[in-house]
Amino acid sequence: MTAEPARTIEIVKRGLKRRYRAERRFRLYGFVAIAVSILFLGVLLVTISARGYSAFWQHEVRLDVFFDPEVLKQDTLVTADYPALVRAALQKRFPEAESRQDRKQLTALISSGAGYQLRDMVLRDPAVIGRTVPVWVPVDDEIDMLLKGVFRRDVPEEERRVSDRQIAWLDALAADGGIERRFNTAFLTSGDSREPELAGIRGALMGSFWVLLVTLALSFPIGVAAAVYLEEFARRNRWTDIIEVNINNLAAVPSIVFGLLGLAVFLNVFGLPRSAPLVGGLVLTLMTLPTIIIASRSALKSVPPSIREAALGVGASRMQMVVHHVLPLALPGMLTGTIIGMARALGESAPLLMIGMVAFIVDIPKGFTDAATVLPVQIYLWADSPERAFVERTSAAIIVLLAFLIVMNAGAIILRKKFERRW
Fold first, then answer.
1. Considering the chain, what percentage of its residues have pLDDT values greater than 70?
2. Is the pLDDT confidence value at 341 over 70?
3. Is residue 342 within 8 Å of 213, Cβ to Cβ?
4. Who has greater pLDDT, 414 or 140?
5. I need a surface site. Which of 141, 191, 291, 363 has the fewest CB within 10 A?
6. Regarding predicted confidence, which is higher, 251 or 204?
């Protein structure tokens, strides 16, 4: 009798040891999975940051520009030949550049946007006409890449796009303190451009702002109203079951399908303007509604039934019970789901490509119907550009987009932690 219980105890102990080993292995697998995920995320962030941080800086050259009255006549200030002033300033600084080829290479040191900068100066203050004024102008994108060390100087001349003469001129300017590395304000304040040194993300940021504003104004009230009706007022029958199943299925539909729907309905049927934030907001509203409805219903379900019963017990109507008691308690969870849905909408590009928001747009959109693009589409356009300088601007735009996404998700976490109630 004593041997049999002892053997049983031994079998149980061996089984416990196997289960403990399996539990430790499972915990180890989970730890390794998390570590690998963090590693890959770190590599991604470091790679993007290493490639994109330099886009926030731009090299500029100081030129002593003579605002020639013969060029800047009073009736042609807007259309005057401002690039001629830049060429004259360069020629005065380097008079040895006499041949046509040398003058062409000398002019190539400076960005084509320098003329527009001089025009803005004259229109802002016509008193500069007839004077020589030191002006800091941006260098060309290839020169900027050379000064940043992206292009190597120690390779043979035929293997680089910057000639030895241009490097000598740059060294002369640097020796005189005529080259400085400054914060690239144009990247944050300008619209898109074919020239990398002039391209900025302000147009895309404003486009994203208008699109998200339309999306929020439509998706939040509609999603909350639908969730309240389904959870608090709708009868449980076959039709509501079908609606719930379809809402859950729509949350998993690829986003490009919503773009095709917007193309077929909003553009082809209703004739709304192509590449407008209004249409983009409508498409993203359709895409984010299922997420907001599901999150709002979960928030409503988290409110204890005792709250509803107490409100009804003191004579409140069903509508008063929902509006005055249930909805305020569920609102933090609804806001969290809405922010997560808006963060997803901010990073979407496929549905917006289908409605034409892939166009090259220089102007800053000022309303819902102006032609615009959004930040993810701007990143897509720059990534397809052949210029090397667009690589760093693509990475810099990704950094800005990730920053917005992190802020929005952090806001959702803060709201949940601050207003969440545990029953």
1. 97
2. yes
3. no
4. 140
5. 363
6. 204
CATH (residue range 202-419): 1.10.3720.10
- How many C-beta atoms lie closer than 10 Å to residue 121's C-beta? 16
Domain edges within the chain:
3-53, 57-191, 202-419
Q: Is the pLDDT of residue 109 over 80?
A: yes
Which residues does 177 contact at the CB level (< 8 Å), separation at least 6?
A: 62
- Say if residues 170 and 147 touch (Cβ distance below 8 Å): yes
Token pair, residue 281, equals 């907001």
Token pair 């008063």: residue: 320
Mean per-residue pLDDT of the chain: 89
Joined together, the tokens standing for residue 411 give: 């806001």
End-to-end CA distance of the chain: 53
Contact by Cβ (8 Å): 87, 103: yes
* Assigned token pair, 358: 């892939």
DSSP string of 259-318?
Answer: HHHHIIIIITTS-PPTT-HHHHHHHHHHHHHHHHHHHHHHHHHTS-HHHHHHHHHTT--H
Burial of 265 (0-12, 13-18, 19+ CB in 10 A): middle
With beta carbons less than 8 A apart as the criterion, state whether 226 and 415 touch: no
Q: And the tokens for 2?
A: 């004593």
